[in-house]
Amino acid sequence: QVQLAESGGGLVQAGGSLRLSCAASGRTFSRYAIGWFRQAPGKEREFVAVISASGGNTDYADSVKGRFTISRDNAKNTVYLQMISLKPEDTAVYYCAAAPHGRNWYDYSDYDYWGQGTQVTVSS
Fold it and tell me: Are the C-beta atoms of residues 95 and 19 closer than 8 Å to each other?
């Protein structure tokens, strides 16, 4: 069982930066890949970034490559999403989620545990 809680969202101007955190409870956190997804009003939830359980592998949606960086600190049971050069189209609720080994990282339905989400709003 893993419980996740996001923080760090807020209102920022275009071109600005934010760092989201995903804090986890549970001794098995280090066994899970952690993904970030986002959902804008009227749109489907979309994949943003993912990091493997060990932290050795990462991947990003094309729309955020070069601007977002995912990292994790298993000693602190926390995953981070550093976001720079933010754009108005990045506005969404951002969720972190945990997937056990062997799942499809890019399919939100393959994630077992979800946080409550944090709002990111980028003004133009």
Answer: no
For 59-67, which contacts have Cβ atoms below 8 Å and span 24 or more sequence positions? Answer: 59/105, 63/89, 64/90
| Terminal CA-CA length for the chain | 40
**Which two structure tokens, joined as six digits, stand for 100?**
């056990």
Note the pLDDT tens digit of each residue in 4-42.
999 999 999 999 999 999 999 987 888 999 999 999 999
Closest to 1 (Cα-Cα) out of 38, 32, 36, 35 = 32
Q: What is the pLDDT of residues 61-112, one digit of tens each?
A: 999 999 999 999 999 999 999 999 999 999 999 999 999 988 999 999 999 9
The answer to whether 107 and 36 are in contact (CB under 8 A) is no
Question: How far, in Å, are 3, 19, 84, 85 from residue 66 at the CA level?
Answer: 29, 15, 9, 9
Q: What are the tokens at 7?
A: 């923080």
3-class secondary-structure state, position 5: strand
